[in-house]
């Protein structure tokens, strides 16, 4: 079941935090307040990120690794923990499998090799490894800096390996936490908005699971998994996908390689968009359903990064012809011969009957307790604060936790003399995604899109603050003003995708994807910068 193992409260009471590929200070500010409470109580923070972000400024130590070398760093830390005798041998022997093979795999990753590959000093790697392994309680948190790579799944597995090596999972204050980028990303996955899962992360290819849903609804659930978003665009390219129904998403501007995304969306026979604004995607749609805002104008639930399900209450009527998402979907079903009642609580009770993890979460309990964390198996169950406590039972119930053999692989969009600079992308505190919700109002903090470069690169290239330059990748080019950012090291640049109407960053990014889950490699694009006279930047 895909969810963070720990609660927010635990981050306040842990001893060591590895914040890996996450600028939580700007992108998850509510969570970061909990993290700061942990620092005030004495926790050590290690920020692992190519940029010295606002989060890293609060850290005891910043490990500025090269983009795409996360597995190399994890494997080096693992080898150091093993050689220093800091593994949790008792936990490994009774709760895990595959340790010996894993130890052999990381054996070549000496501190010296790790430094050469990641550019993190050997002494820094050693300090982090020892601090994490010797802490009584320790938590690893990560976000898109880990997952927006062609090795996304393997990056996550590398972090899981570290937790198994040290026993930092399944106990209060120790765990693994992917921080979700929006308020209900977790809830979407929980409810089955994944190509291979039904609500409660039940696998669609499991016959017993499908039989339960077949009986409940009186129809046969398709036995094969569907397409994730990247696979949908591949299917459009082949001509196998001819119609698309988009709800609350702006793929024309959020997808990597925007030229390709535009071409494929415009090739569809039918494009339907349901949204609260007329997005760039909606402007190209055949049909637009104006929707109510998820907060304040709709009834329902959301689930946050600590797996807490919370009630959403309607306090305002949606404007104009806008309607709640649920009303639109149920009305559409009625036109297709299936009269569904648009009642949020009734549908939530369907979820409770079909997903064991949500069975104990009645609306009354969610109201009374200000939310509950799944799994919550019945109406006497308090909800699980942390997951995988079974790994500490003797004997372990269910399967052991396996070590994963994951190998370092460089970004697919390689650097060379023509494209000598690395562009990584991310978010800023005051903005949100493709700017649909935050771009329509005046803000004193808004400075628009920039190409952020290090002071060293700016000096070498003769760039000044605000200067307009041309940024080119193997897929496209944009013009953007320069911002000189001391958080960047030489050779690394940064952009967001918050201002696509002004600077369409995703014209640059690669649509190379992780073959396991289809996540695009937004974090590792090769670019060059040209000044007004067409002079290309040099890497040297």
Nutshell version of this structure?
The chain has 540 residues and is an alpha/beta fold. The chain has 20 helices and 21 strands.
Indicate the CATH class of the largest domain: Alpha Beta
Number of strands: 21
Radius of gyration: 24 Å
Query: Would you identify the regions where 5 or more consecutive residues have pLDDT less than 50?
Result: none
Largest sheet: 6 strands, mixed
What count of structural domains?
3
Describe the strand arrangement of the main beta sheet, using strand numbers: 17-19-18-21-16-20
Describe the structure.
There is one protein chain. Strands 17-19-18-21-16-20 form a six-stranded mixed β-sheet. Helix content is 31%, strand content 16%. The protein folds into three domains: 8-178, Dimethylsulfoxide Reductase, domain 2 (3-Layer(aba) Sandwich); 185-373, Rossmann fold (3-Layer(aba) Sandwich); 421-530, Barwin-like endoglucanases, CATH 2.40.40.20. Strand 7 and strand 8 form a beta hairpin. It contains 20 helices and 21 strands. With 540 residues, it is α/β, with parallel strands linked by helices. The chain starts with 7 loop residues before the first helix and ends in a 10-residue tail after the last strand. Helix 4 crosses helix 8, helix 4 (70-83) runs parallel beside helix 10 and helix 7 (111-118) crosses helix 8.
Brief descriptors of the model:
540 residues; alpha/beta; Dimethylsulfoxide Reductase, domain 2; Rossmann fold; Barwin-like endoglucanases; six-stranded mixed beta sheet; five-stranded parallel beta sheet; globular
């Amino acid at each position: 079941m895909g969810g963070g193992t720990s609660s927010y409260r635990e981050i306040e009471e842990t001893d060591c935090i590895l914040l890996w590929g996450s600028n939580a200070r700007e992108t998850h500010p509510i969570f970061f307040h909990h993290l700061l409470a942990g620092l005030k109580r004495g926790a050590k923070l290690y920020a692992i990120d190519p940029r010295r972000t606002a989060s890293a400024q609060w850290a005891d130590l910043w490990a500025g690794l090269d983009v795409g070398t996360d597995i190399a760093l994890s494997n080096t830390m693992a080898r150091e923990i093993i050689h220093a005798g800091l593994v949790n041998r008792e936990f490994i022997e009774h709760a895990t499998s595959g340790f010996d093979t894993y130890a052999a795999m990381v054996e070549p990753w000496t501190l010296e090799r790790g430094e050469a590959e990641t550019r993190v000093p050997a002494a820094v790697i050693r300090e982090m490894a020892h601090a994490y392994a010797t802490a009584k309680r320790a938590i690893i948190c990560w976000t898109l800096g880990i997952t927006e790579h062609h090795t996304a799944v393997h990056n996550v597995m590398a972090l899981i390996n570290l937790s198994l090596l040290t026993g930092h999972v399944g106990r209060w204050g120790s765990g693994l936490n992917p921080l979700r980028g929006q308020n209900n990303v977790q809830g979407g996955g929980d409810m089955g908005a994944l190509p291979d899962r039904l609500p409660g992360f039940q696998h669609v290819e499991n016959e017993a699971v499908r039989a339960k849903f077949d009986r409940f609804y009186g129809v046969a659930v398709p036995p094969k998994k569907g397409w994730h978003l990247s696979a949908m665009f591949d299917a459009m390219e082949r001509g196998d996908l001819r119609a698309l129904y988009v709800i609350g998403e702006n793929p024309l501007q959020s997808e990597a390689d925007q030229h390709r995304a535009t071409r494929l969306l415009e090739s569809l026979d039918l494009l339907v968009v349901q949204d609260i604004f007329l997005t760039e995607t909606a402007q190209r749609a055949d049909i637009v359903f104006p929707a109510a805002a998820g907060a304040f104008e709709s009834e329902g639930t959301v689930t946050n990064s600590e797996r807490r399900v919370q009630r959403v209450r309607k306090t305002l009527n949606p404007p104009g012809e806008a309607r709640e998402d649920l009303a639109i979907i149920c009305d559409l079903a009625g036109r297709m011969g299936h009269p569904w009642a648009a009642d949020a609580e009734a549908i939530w009770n369907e979820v409770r009957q079909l997903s064991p993890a949500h069975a104990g979460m009645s609306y009354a309990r969610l109201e009374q307790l200000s939310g509950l964390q799944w799994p919550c198996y019945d109406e006497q169950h308090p909800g699980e604060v942390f997951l995988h406590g079974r790994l500490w039972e003797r004997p372990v119930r269910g399967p052991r936790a396996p070590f994963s053999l994951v190998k370092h692989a460089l970004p697919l969009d390689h650097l060379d003399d023509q494209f000598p600079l690395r562009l990584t992308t991310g978010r800023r505190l005051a903005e949100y995604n493709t700017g649909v919700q935050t771009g329509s109002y005046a803000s004193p903090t808004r400075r628009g899109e920039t190409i952020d470069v290090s002071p060293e690169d700016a000096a070498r290239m003769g760039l000044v603050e605000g200067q307009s330059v041309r940024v080119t990748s193997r897929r496209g080019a944009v013009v953007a003003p320069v911002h000189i950012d001391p958080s960047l090291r030489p050779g690394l640049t940064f952009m967001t995708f918050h201002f696509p109407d002004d600077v369409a960053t995703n014209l640059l990014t690669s649509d190379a994807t992780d073959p396991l889950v289809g996540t695009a490699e937004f974090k590792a694009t090769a670019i060059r910068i040209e000044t007004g006279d067409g002079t290309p930047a040099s890497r040297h």
